[in-house]
Structure formats: C-alpha cells, structure tokens
Amino acid sequence: MTNTGSSGVEHGELRSADLATVAEQLGREPTVPFTVTARCTGGHPLVIRNAPLDTEGAPFPTTHWLTCPDAVKAVSRLEADGWIARLNERADDDETFRTAIDAAHEEAAEDRARDLPEARAWGGVGGTRRGIKCLHAHYANRLGGGADAVGEWVAEQVEPVHATQRAHRVAAIDQGTNSCRLLVLEPPADGSAEPTELARDMIITRLGRGVDRDGRFDPDALARTIAVIERYCRRARALAAETIRVGATSATRDASNRDELADAVRRSAGSELEVITGEQEAALSFLGATRGLDPLDGPFLVVDIGGGSTEFVFGRAPAIADHAISVRMGSVRLTERSIRSDPPAPEDLDRLREEVRRGIEEAAAAVPAGEARTFVSVAGTATTIKAIALGLGRYDPDVIHRTWLTAAEAERVLGELVGMTNEARAALPVMAPGRGDVIVAGAVILVEAMRRFGYERTLVSETDILDGLAFEALGVR
Q1: I need a labelling partner for 451 at 20 to 30 A (CA). Which of 24, 67, 72, 320 fits?
Q2: Residue 2: what pLDDT?
Q3: Which of 201, 157, 211, 477 lies closest to 328, judged by CA?
C-alpha cells in the first residue's frame, strides 16, 4: 500500500466552473494544476493549492495562491504601504516573531512535500527560505491551514474581505479508516437557501492500517492523521468557523489507543472527538446523501462503503433513516484480509467475494432493501468508479454528483481494476492517492450489493456522512 498521506493536486478534484473562474480571476489560463483550498462568501475561489510543478515540468514553489480579486487588492494595499519592509524590520528586532516566521517556512516546505518529496528543498512560503517576500502568499498560506504569524497579521488588517460574510460558520471533519476529510459551511442567508461551501478537502492518511489485525492505531498512521487534523482545524478557524465537529468511525471504534486521537482533537478543535456508532454513522450518511432528493423517489437505500465498515440505510423519506446496519466490511479491512497478490489473484477475489456476500446477507436481514425504489451509493469507491466509467481526465464532482451508475458499468470498471496493478490504478487521473490499492475491495462490495438486491443502477452521491455532520452542526435538515 503506497501514497498514504499525499494530497495529490494532479489527482485532486477540480470543478470545470472553478477552472473557468480562476482563469477569470487571474486574467489568464492557469499554467499549474491546482485544486481549490478555500472559498469566499459567494462561493467563488479564494485560495487555490498549486502543484509543485507547472505544466512544463518546471518548479513552482508557491503552494497556496490568493485568487479572489477583492482579497488580492486588500493585501496589495498593505504591500503598497510598505508593510513587507516594516515586518522584516520587526523580525530583525523580535526574536519570537522571527522564530514564528522560520517555523512557517519550514511547515510550508513540509506541506508542499506532500505532493512532491523533493520540493521540500525549494523553500517555505512562496518559495522563500527566510524573511517575508510576499504578504499575499503568507495570507493564502494561513487560509490553507498553515501556522503563519504573518498571515494572521494580514488577516487582522483586511478581514472581513466581503461585507456580506455571515456569522455562525461551522466545520466538520470526518476521520474515517482510510481518509480524513474537511467541510466548512456558511449558513444560508435565509431559510430557503442552501449553505455555502467554503472548503472541502480530503487526504488519505490510512489511520486504520493494521487496526483489524492489531486492535490499535499504527504510530506512524496516527501521527500522520493528527498532523492533518491540526492543519484542517487551523484552516477552519482561518475561515472563521465558530464550531469544529470531528467525527471518527470504524477504525477508531476498534482501536484500543483511540484516547491519543481524542486528546489531539481536543487540543486542535477545542471540542471532543465524537466516536460515532455504526447506527449514527448510517443516519448521518443517509442525511448527507438524501437531503434534497424528491420524496416521490423514495423509499431510499443508501450504501456507504468506507475503509473499515459499510453502512446500509433504509428510509422512506429524504434525510430520515428508518432502518440501518453497519457491517464490519470496508475497502481497507477486506484488502488486508483477502488480497495477497498484485494484481489480485483469482483465489484473492474468491476470498473477497465470500466475505462480502456474508456481510451483505447480514445487512439483508436487518434492512428492507427490497422495498427501496432508489439505491444511492456514497463515498470514494462509488464516486471514483463513476469517474472511471465516464473516462474523466480529472476528477470533477459536479459531473459525478447525483448521476446514475449502471450495474453493467460498475462490473466493467471492476473488471478493469482487477486486471491492473496497484501502481497502474494509482496512476489513473481520477484516483485519489492512497485509494488505488483498496478500490478493488470497495468495488466488489458495490457490485455484490447491486447483484444481491437486484438494482440495475445506483444514484452516485458526492454528499455523505461528512455533509451530515456539518448539516447537523448548522441545524439544517
């Protein structure tokens, strides 16, 4: 299993609308692959995360880039007033401030290295090794989750950038077996509008590696995960989130040393880690997946394929779960148990299918799946399979969300994935780093569920438990 902890800008999600908006903001076509790190009240990109190399393969050391024109103008006024020189003078005289700047550069170099290890040597914020070169870069770094004293000072001078910024923003972090995900929402302006998404991110940290075997978090996986949570919490606070809710699922339920994670969450988020039961996980996934669907399309069956468990949830109306079960089968857990060859050997697949079928029968006894009219699939397995089926050159959630994936498409993609090595799957442009080696197990769960319950198609949803956590924090249904 490889690539754990990588953010993978080239393999990250990018909406076509964001690509067009950033081109308009910059006044030119972007020359570096990027993802959107943070958004303004209006939902337009505020900060993007650039890949370490441009499209020509040349180094590009500015990881976080401020793109919102209003924010750029506000920071430019500070630079025009001579604040770069003044702050550098302060750093010469103030050892504490100078040390904080050095730490920001070091952390920024480590952050860039998640995408390309050798890029660590290219300097810190904006490629600078010491001192302050660009206030825009420091402010963007802070909004991206960096512990940046200069960026914090800039924020105090220019925020709020938009007068329409609304209070009571919330953040949710979903700590799963395989991935750590962040969502920051701003409440709607009135009761009829939808919340505004200010940040959505995912980094695969593989927290659950070995938990099925050892019953404990691996120290490296735990340290990697805590570092991501700390950065996510800083980003949430930089985006003015008043509440940070951290929910943990299957691997954390099973780990005897989960108190170490809970202590880290308490320090970073200022809230208690919520170790969510399987039933709570199912209900939150159902809320996130079905909110806004047409009640006439119900009843609904939602299947959430995670790294350590899979939830099967039935509800007659959107957002309200009636029956649910969490089964201890997930893409990471089953890969560790069943797959021993690369690519998987026939005997690996036989073991895998046998265990999946047992888990699905357990679900069938608890949930009236046959009564559902609409089958909804959430989480990375289903969305990635749909992206592969569409032949996307990059992962665009707007193209994937609430589209239909047929059983024939799912089986075709599964057949393709089974015939590939881990390295080949990881190289697919829509494959998030850290998912390629476990997606076969996830795909088998999805295909076997469709076969067992007789569904010819499934509605693929980008919204799931993470959205459910955030919706609950906002008090919306």
Answers
A1: 320
A2: 36
A3: 211
